[in-house]
Design a protein that fits this description.
With 131 residues, this protein is α+β, with helices and mostly antiparallel strands. The protein has a domain of 66 residues. Helices cover 24% and strands 27% of the residues. A hairpin with a 4-residue loop joins strand 1 and strand 2.
Amino acid sequence: MRNLILVPMLLAGSLLSTGCAMGVAVRPPVETTIYVPAPPPRRAPLPPPPPPPQRGPMSRNEAISLGQSYCYDRGFDCWLDGANLAKHDSLWKVKFTARGRRSQGKLHLEFDAWSGDLVRADEKGQLRKHG
């Protein structure tokens, strides 16, 4: 009978010593530290790009090409008579002999040397615009 009382007491003692006699365990709260990386350092803004280089007056070949485009747009076949830079290098004078379906004559064109804009066009002879 002694063994009957001794076994439950030993069992109860072992349970109480481990802290799980009631099945309840009290744990201290765990502090959690979240690592957030620092933002990257800000870079200084880039300096503005340099201005484009100043372009000089268009070349003789560019002036001739613009004149040939003028001829083509009007349906003429053109042969170059000459191209000269005039008025203090600000104006290209381009001269062509032009021939259309039923006309022929001289074509004198003047282009602004800096912008390439057509300043003047003289169609001499029997040149006419055919649509």
